Amino acid sequence: MTDSIFDEAIYKPTGGFMNAPSHHDLTGCQLAIVGMPFDCGVHPTRIGSRQGPAAIREQSGLVRPFQPPHADFNPLEALGVIDCGDAVCLPGRPEPSFEVMEEAIWRIASRGVSTLTMGGDGSVTLPQLRGWRRVHPDLCVLHIDAHTDTYPVTGQERITTATTFTLAAKEGLDTANTLHIGARGPTYMGGVFEFTRGLGYELIPDADMRRDGLDTTVRHIHERLGGRKVYLCWDMDVFDPSCAPGVATPTWGGLTAGEGLGLLQALAGLDIVAVDVNTVSPPHDVGGMTAFLAGCVMLEGMTLVARAR
User: Fold this and answer.
1) What is the mean predicted confidence (pLDDT) over 77-103?
2) How far apart are CA 306 and CA 76, in angstroms?
3) What is the DSSP letter of 124?
4) Does residue 173 contact residue 152 with C-beta atoms inside 8 Å?
5) What is the pLDDT of residues 57-70, one digit of tens each?
6) Domains along the chain?
7) CA-to-CA distance for 41 and 19, rounded, in angstroms?
8) In 3-state terms, what secondary structure has residue 71?
9) Beta strand residue intervals within the chain, DSSP E
């Protein structure tokens, strides 16, 4: 018997990330990959994150599975990883696209299988949270990003990358056990940090993380989220643009590649059920370096899920 979740209205087959098998049979699978080729199309200067999944898959040929000394095993084999392709999205049309993305995630999560996804802009997190919270209503989120994505909902555009976690809070996300890590740089309105905290979220800005040190921040994360089901949301603009230029909203002063990957490795021990890597914008990338780094982030995410299981 097989446990196929394929529906041509939900999944569009593609090539496999890191040459993972490309199919929709979850038999023996503990982690499934899905691309989320969507962006809202309203960014004032940079549109293109809808092309992120294709670019990351292309660059994933450079990503090798073994990582001695900290992870000298193949997480694709350990987890029976498959690549389910892309969710069938309509860029610029969030409502129908979000329905498909939520269904694509729920079909996997409801069978006890973890998800590893690649966006897409930061808005793709909201439908994924909807899908996962149908399985784990008490799900908490570790959001690592140069921005809080928690702005007031104003004007005609209710769904944007800036309102992802504002809407998640209104929909019942456990804000008391959700952490925003790494926010920095200029914003287009004042009071953003206060607004984020006002919704119940804990926010550790980049300045505080650097003042206290990454080790202290990591210990705090483990103290807060240990024993809980964790959704890890990693926005690629948490990296400095010098190593990840191809993102929707680059912000100077971020993590180096070594710091970011080291932070990911230090999360081992958390019960991570889902990893969401987003905001790669290939039209603004240089030599595919951001997509390549995103592939390495995904490998670290796989390794974290393997350790959790």
Assistant:
1) 97
2) 9
3) G
4) no
5) 999 999 999 999 99
6) 11-308 (3.40.800.10)
7) 30
8) strand
9) 11-12, 31-36, 82-87, 114-119, 140-144, 179-181, 202-204, 229-235, 271-278
- Classify residue 224 by its DSSP letter: H
**Tokens (6 digits) for 114:** 């973890």
Q: Are 139 and 174 in contact (CB under 8 A)?
A: yes
Does the pLDDT of residue 159 top 70, yes or no?
Answer: yes
- Type of residue at 135: V
The structure's pTM equals 0.97
Among 177, 232, 223, smallest CA distance to 199 is for 177
Query: Rounded to an integer, what distance in angstroms lies between the CA atom of residue 242 and that of residue 111?
Result: 40
Which residue matches tokens 């920095």? 184
Q: How far from the centroid of its chain's Cα atoms is residue 44's Cα?
A: 22
Which residue type is seen at 131? G
User: Rounded to whole angstroms, how far apart are CA atoms 205 and 251?
Assistant: 13
Model pLDDT, residue 117: 98
Read off φ and ψ for residue 111, nearest 5 degrees.
-100, 15
